[in-house]
What does this fold into?
Amino acid sequence: MLARYLRHEVSDAEFVAKDLELWTVANGGPIDAATVNRALDGAEPLPGAAEAVEGLHAAGITTAIISGGIDYLAQKLATEWGMAEAHANPLFDTQQGLQGEILVSGHAKAPVMREVVARHGVSRDEVAAVGDTVVDLDLFSLAGTSVAVNTSNEQVVAAATHHLPDESLDGLLELLLPDK
It folds into this structure.
């Protein structure tokens, strides 16, 4: 399903519905947002991510998360790392079961990025975007610097100004702050 989503063969709503269905099956029955959030508590960011954000903050750079994923995880990391903003998609419980709301389309993250950039009053040359799939390409197009991470996808690598192919963000600070 993810591959079909990345090829734009299914909509955000269809992808979320299937994702929620898979969570329900994996749980052996109905699932609630708290259960999903507890599972996400075990998610590990790429090695070097926290250190990269810390280094950017030490250099006076504002950071934000724009994700087509689940809001709970984006908000958790943004809070832990002292980021200015996090934008993603919330889950909520209803009488009909667990539902998701699409606030950040994986197929169109650019509108959110434009709002964040405008809110912080920065120019394109002051913006860096870091991503790993084709759903990040519209972010790359709005950033002066773009970094493809942990991917060998030729389209993503070609669109980025830099490439960190490994499962690590250890080299990110050196790319973004070469004089530090």
Notes: The beta strands are 64-70, 85-89, 91-94, 97-100, 128-131, 145-149, 162-164.
